[in-house]
Amino acid sequence: MAASITLCRQCRRWLLQTVVRTPGFRARHLGPWKDKDYGCEVSINVGDGQLQVSSGKLARFADGAAVAQLGNTSVLVTAVSKKRSSPSSFLPLTVDFRQKAAAAGRIPMNFFRRELGSTETEILTSRAIDRSLRPLFPSSYFSDTQLVCNVLAMDGANDPDIVSINAASAALSVSDIPWNGPVGAVRVGLVDKEVIINPTRRQLQQSTLDLIITATQKHKVVMLEGFGDAVHLHDLQRAISKGVSEAQAIIQSILQLREELGRPKRILEPPTVLDVEVAEALRSLSLARIREVLFNDDHDKISRDVQIQEIKADVIEKLKETFPTSDPALMNESYNKVAKEIFRSLVLDEERRCDGRSLTQVRDITCGVDLYKPLHGSALFQRGQTQVLCTVTFDSPEAAARVDPVSVLTGNIKEKNFMLHYEFPPYATNETGRPGGVGRREFGHGALAEKGLRAVIPNNSPFTIRLTAEVLESNGSSSMASVCGGSLALMDAGVKVKAAAAGVAMGLMSRTDPETGDISEYKILTDLLGIEDYMGDMDFKMAGTRHGITALQVDFKLPGVPLEIVSKALEQGFAAKNDVLDIMDATISKPRESLKPNGPLMEKLDIKPQDRSKFFGVGGRNLRKLRSETGVTVTPLDDTNFQLFAPNADAMDEARELIEEFLKDEQEPELEFGAIYVGRIVEIRDMGVMVELHPKLQPVLLHNSQLDQRKVRHPSALDLEVGQDISVKYFGRDPITGHIRISRKVLQSPATSVIRNIGSRDA
């Protein structure tokens, strides 16, 4: 039976011109392919480059697959979703971004020489893709869904993260998976106040902004993530507006691709709901009690949650007695919806928050620095019930974090001399679990806080700086509290930061028109609580100095938010961030003039070329001894200059004494240039013989090329043995390495010097 095939214009032209003339076409081409799987490709001019998106040729067993290419960077994204829903109340969406070394023309440099676990770059990119897609899935869709992003090729100029988001959007669009897309994503840079769309890696080095924008139709924003060098608020708003406009062309092209190759979406089964009578009884039993809890400003995070859960348990227990056949799981879900509705109506209708604050008010803040004397720098930042302890540690330049070679091709940093590590132990939310674990959440929050502070770190810092942010209590916005506490700790440690930085999280409560789906009413909340994040529609994290924005991360639970709301949130957050800086300035307003007495020291050391062997010792023995006994590390700057790093002044004093001992003058004899000396062979090597000219001198290598006028491959050819005396001529020291240069070959010509013996070797 002949298959019905629908082709795009380009594919039909290719079919008529090439394939139809090929004998056996149907057997070799049509046989194993499914309907509509000839593939189709669309091209979009975005910025100065061209984005190509295709589908239908690769990974055809997946529910949806697409390849996107920008420049010579290509990414294949596959989407697979189970046909049955999982027993959960949220969408189990998994995004796995894999940046394979082969795509960059490299081999993994681990023991197995193959890709192992996910790198930090892969985890952060996976999170960005997830946040760009998740809001557009239907609220009642709970099937296990997985997107695999496989980087096929990387040109080193275009980052694959933007390409992956667009490829994922296309893969979901042409699949039968229920999804209300597509979305389009662009990267925005700012060079000399000019907005650049999808800048290359070299352009990003000159840019003061690196921002990823994901948008949907009608110029709505779905996700924002990026960082900058104190970007002015007006410039940031202009960049976001242009990025959203550029994304519309990508969206229209993906819609065209879906029209050509898209499969019908699966029909969603309507969710099971409570009977109307049971739902009304549940609402009447819980409405007044929930409002009473939310109106009580004396409640904190724990007591409020406990009260809400106790009311739930009591209401469900009473309903079971009256309606024994009703499903308790549906009662639980219905109760949560009622609680969320009440919580949101308090904000939207009465402009009341559960802790009594106004919509623009920041929680009470307390700060402290110099908490523990042995630390190089420390600070405690408390905002409401969010508490973060930050510590600063200085180390030598050798402690800088080396980025894996594949990530170097897509980023501007080969090694990091500033790193922020975010820790979220389970006790921070009154839970139990294994402390010390680092998951995707910790990576994401730590990277955001690090970006918020990276712009204020001095470029010429002599130390490697590690900042740890440990969340001791959490009730919302712990990553932005890490920025505040980290800024205080850096100034306490004496780091010459360019300016103090702070962070704040903004929230959104909204109502939508049931017919159009557009937002009809909304309120923006300053300094988000944990419960407001859970019940709300937006988590808008913003960090910066008084001059501008340094980091931004915006997640929406709605399928797109208008630019007007994004702009207002930026302005309201910028003002709140300045209020936080005013409070922080009362504790410490500028960096300390010098490091603390227990702080590290760095000194430069000049070693003469002839003393380098004594300084290093045999096989580097002296350097290892220096580090093990004093903790001092040595970093070579050039051939003669070295840099010493000591954790404190006492360690530096001990290191100086050891170095003096290493370089102690043993009254070595001075050799006369051009003189002939008699030495003793102490070792036979493949490349020559080691000759001892004097007991107080290190043995000197007499290379095979200097043994005889004839070409010598091995000293044994001349019957040389250990213990044998040999005459050599001295030609000074190598000006670079400081090694002694001697020759036996020149003595086979007529003698021009007097043979000398510089003392007994037994002395």
Task: Give your account of this protein's structure.
By secondary structure, the protein is of the alpha+beta class. It folds into five domains: 223 residues, 2-Layer Sandwich (Ribosomal Protein S5, domain 2); 75 residues, Polyribonucleotide nucleotidyltransferase, RNA-binding domain (Arc Repressor Mutant, subunit A, Orthogonal Bundle), CATH 1.10.10.400; 220 residues, Ribosomal Protein S5, domain 2; 62 residues, 2-Layer Sandwich (Ribosomal Protein S8, Chain: A, domain 1), CATH 3.30.1370.10; 81 residues, Beta Barrel (OB fold (Dihydrolipoamide Acetyltransferase, E2P)). 31% of the residues lie in helices and 28% in strands. The chain contains 17 helices and 31 strands. The strands form six sheets. Strands 7, 8, 9, 10, 18, 19, 20, 21 and 22 form a nine-stranded antiparallel sheet that branches. A six-stranded mixed sheet has the order 1-2-3-4-6-5. Strands 26, 27, 28, 29, 30 and 31 form a six-stranded mixed sheet that branches. β3 and β4 form a beta hairpin. α11 crosses α12. The longest helix is centred in the N-terminal third of the chain and has 29 residues. The chain is elongated and about 115 Å long. The protein starts with 8 loop residues before the first helix and ends in a 7-residue tail after the last strand. The N terminus is likely disordered.
